[in-house]
Amino acid sequence: SMDGPPAPASPAGLSAFVAVSQLLGLTLLVTTGAWLGRYRGGVAWHSPLQFNAHPLCMVLGMVFLQGDALLVYRVFRNEAKRSTKALHALLHGLALVIALVGIIAVFESHRTKGIPNMYSLHSWCGMAAFVLYLLQWLLGCGFFLFPGASFSLRGRYKPQHIFFGIALFVLSIASCLLGITEMLLFKISDTYSHFVPEGVLANTLGVMLVAFGLVVGYILTREEWKRPPLAEELALSMDFKTLTEGESPGG
C-alpha cells in the first residue's frame, strides 16, 4: 500500500516456534489416531467403538484448536484487530463444538455399556475444563466481539480473560493426561508395567501433549512477541465512545 510503511516483519524466532507448535499439534493428532486405530479398534459412532471418539475429539478440540486459538494474536500481528478477534472466537467455538461431540460420545458409550459417569478425577477435571471454557468463550464474545461493553469495562476484564485462557489450556492438557492414564489402567493394567508398545505409545502421546503446551505457553508469555496495537487501534482507544456512536474517530 502507498498509504503507509510496509507491515513490520515477525520478531526473530516467533515463526520458528509457531512452526514447531503446529508440527507438534499435528503429530499429536496422528499419534492419537494411531493409538486408537492400532490398539483400540478405531473409531465408529453407533458401535462399541463410540467411546474412542472421546479422546480423539478432546485432543483435537481442547488441546490443538484451543492452542491455535490462543496463538492467533501472535501469528496475525498486522491484520485488523476485528478480523483477528473473529478468528480467535471462531477457533475457540469450533473447539467447543468438537469437545461437545467428544463428551456426548463418552456419555452415550457409558450408557450403552452400563458404566457409571463422573466418578473419576479425570471426569471431574475434564468437565470443569469444558464448562469453564464455554463460560470463558461466552464472556469473551460478550466483552470483546460484540458491541456494548464499555472500553473501561473491557480493559478491566481483559487481564482475567487472558489468565483464564492460559489456565484453561493447562487444565485441558492435565485432563488429557489423566484420561490417558485412566484408559491405560482400564485396558492394559496387567501388562502396562512391562513396557508394552501400546503403553509406550500412549506415554509418548502424553509427553507430546506436555511439549505442545510448553511451546504454546512460551510463545504466549514472551513479552516481545505480543501483538503491537496498530495505529488505528490507538486512535480507537483514544476515542472509543465516539466511534461506537457511529461518528468518525477524528470527528
TrEMBL record:
GO terms for molecular function: metal ion binding; oxidoreductase activity. Its main location: membrane. The keyword Ligase does not apply. It is a multi-pass membrane protein. PROSITE patterns: CYTOCHROME_B561 (PS50939). The keyword Translocase applies. It holds the Pfam family Cytochrom_B561. It catalyses: monodehydro-L-ascorbate radical(out) + L-ascorbate(in) = monodehydro-L-ascorbate radical(in) + L-ascorbate(out). The chain crosses the membrane at residues 12-36, 56-76, 88-107, 127-149, 161-180, 200-220. This is Transmembrane ascorbate-dependent reductase CYB561. It comes from Serilophus lunatus (silver-breasted broadbill).
